[in-house]
Amino acid sequence: MISRRHFLIALGALAPASAFAQPRPVRIGMLGPSPFKVSVYAGGVVRGFADLGYREGARAAFDYRSADGRPELYAKQAKELVESKCDLYVALGAEPPVRALQALRPPAPILFLAVDYDPLEKGVITDLRRPDRNTTGVYVPQNALVGKRVEVMREFLPEAKRMLLYADRFSRDQIPAARRAAEQARFELSLVEFDRQPYDYAAPLAMARKAGVGAFMNLASPVFARDRQAIAELLTQHKMASMGSNNVQAEVGYLVSLGTNTAKIARRVADTGVRLLKGAKPADIPIEQADEFELVVNAKTAKALGLRIPESIRARTARIVT
Questions:
Q1: Structural contact between residues 33 and 96, judged by C-beta atoms closer than 8 angstroms
Q2: Phi, psi at residue 314, to the nearest 5°?
Q3: In terms of DSSP H, where are the helices of 193-282?
Q4: Quick check: helix, strand or coil at residue 288?
Q5: Distance in angstroms (rounded) separating the CA atoms of residues 36 and 140
Q6: Which end of the chain is more exposed for a tag (fewer CB within 10 A), N or C?
Q7: H helix intervals, 40-169
Q8: β-sheet bridge partners, residue 244
């Protein structure tokens, strides 16, 4: 009579090696506007997947591509990702990456993080509740946030008359909201809209400072986010009070920022991504709108500018950078 232990050992000896092999890591293709090291969101998304059990080199393999401000590269990079037969495609930040992936109609789902555009208004999807085109995702309502950012600047600078505004091709849809907000807050707006890279950040700032402009704001753009350190250094040089669109800008020297917590929103993207990897269909996952926003103030910058943090702002501040 053969024992259960000996039976299992014999069964194992007869079984092919593939029966005990680890499952193939899922392949996640990521397409974004900025290189990985300076991307505001890419690292957080990868960490989010890792926290949920899909760590690089274990259960997941990540393939990240970036056009780094050259939109003509997106089609080629998207094609390369689709040809590598990924299990999931993640389009970060701007509209061109998700458009490039959708144009190829890959069999695997597309997941977007829409930071600089409204996916419904732009036609990336046609229904928020039941997304189509094999695409779902998370988006940040920038137009609503623009007005609140201008209001915060008015609280900081009750006597300022003019504001310098940086926009570009990625953020121009936010300009009308900025104009309305500036008018309501009694700011005369000086708009600089960049087209070709590299952007000349220094010259408009120098001219504005000489003209007595006291406030600065950039709209939400992957290029401004990528160049946050360089912009912050110029703002410090010209002693300009500034508003950023995400928390990392306040961390590097902007006076204040109002936007989503980048780590939290990246984790929400990873949460959705894991659901898709486990078999959920994009049409069954409604588009998720970011609804948690935080005010971050850089106390060191405020001190350098000789500004007091108003109590009305201090009471609403999620974090003060010291």
A1: yes
A2: -55, -40
A3: 202-210, 222-226, 228-237, 247-252, 262-277
A4: strand
A5: 20
A6: N
A7: 42-51, 74-83, 95-104, 142-156
A8: 257
